[in-house]
Design a protein that fits this description.
Helices cover 36% and strands 16% of the residues. By secondary structure, the chain is an alpha/beta fold. Belongs to the arginase family.
Length: 306
């Protein structure tokens, strides 16, 4: 596995795109769980940049199919700039969310960096949800259910063109893993664009090892791997601290194997940690588990492989 460059932690304390309050406390919960110390203990150069600032969450109903669109745009523009700065300095940005709408800004910055560096971007989207809603099919208007659609060019131009042009990504550069909740209208869109989804039934049928082998196939020296990790990817029996719990997710060992195989690829270049909601957690156990899994993502493995 290649030596990883230095790491920057960037907190984004907002639940502006979510349907429940509390993800704004996610960055601090991850710090309390020791994310910086755990990565530093692995010999990595870790700097905590503190928290970004943005609009207060007004908690208003949707307007024209979107909740809080101007504030979501403002937060994502700030995220895009912060992530882009870290990448430009040769660092691995770890975005501490915050709700998953923030991946629009994060991945837009990563995609621009990859274009400038001649790298091919692959996004691993670890999530219970496909996040491919639009204003016409969303049941809620919550933009944390729309980031993949926006990145693929389906959504308000303020978000689809955040980086100056659309789409930021084509669907063939995204691998979704752990999916088990897709809205009816969203399902048609996902099929129409041909999104590469490894849902829980497929994981049950063939196992996490084969899923990750397929998802990571053909990665080489010119590839940049971005992992967008929504904590509700995990089964709520082990990770209750999220706003949208969906039973039947990966077990602890399945999640560990997923992370270890990503680490083995040697291509990890950026990471989002999203939707941790301490208000719904039990003694910060979800944050502690998340730190454990992120350690595996950065090279910790079991027994003699460490």
């Amino acid at each position: 596995m290649q030596k990883l460059p230095p790491i920057s932690l960037v907190g984004v304390p907002t639940d502006i795109g979510a349907g429940h309050r509390g993800a704004s406390m996610g960055p601090e919960a991850l710090r309390v769980a020791g994310i910086g110390e755990a990565l530093a203990a692995r010999g990595l150069d870790v700097v905590d940049r503190g928290n970004l600032n943005g609009p207060f969450n007004p908690w208003q109903p949707p307007v024209d199919g979107y909740r809080h669109l101007p504030a979501v745009v403002a937060w994502n523009r700030t995220v895009m700039q912060a992530v882009g700065t870290e990448l430009a300095h040769g660092r691995v940005p770890i975005l501490l969310g915050g709700d998953h709408c923030l991946a629009i800004g994060s991945i837009t910055a990563v995609a621009r960096h990859c274009r400038e560096q001649g790298k091919r971007l692959t996004v691993l989207w670890l999530d219970a949800h496909a996040d491919f809603n639009t204003s016409t099919v969303t049941p809620s208007g919550n933009i944390h259910g729309m980031p993949v659609a926006c990145l693929c060019g389906f959504g308000p131009h303020e978000l689809t063109e955040l980086g100056g042009s659309a789409p930021t990504l084509t669907p063939d550069r995204i691998r979704q893993i752990g999916i088990r909740s897709v809205d009816a209208g969203e399902k048609k869109l996902v099929h129409d664009v041909g999104l590469d989804i490894y849902d829980m039934r497929y994981i049950d049928e063939v196992g996490m090892r084969r899923v990750m082998e397929e998802a990571l196939l053909n990665l080489g020296a010119d590839d940049h791997l971005h992992v967008s990790f929504d904590i509700d990817f995990l089964d709520p029996a082990i990770a209750p601290g999220v706003g949208t719990t969906i039973p039947g997710g990966p077990t602890y060992r399945e999640a560990q194997l997923c992370m270890e195989m990503i680490a083995d690829s040697g291509r990890l270049g950026s990471l989002d940690i999203m939707e941790l909601n301490p208000a719904l957690d039990v003694r910060n156990q979800t944050a502690l588990l998340t730190v454990d899994l992120v350690e595996s993502l950065f090279g910790k493995s079991t027994l003699m492989r460490d």
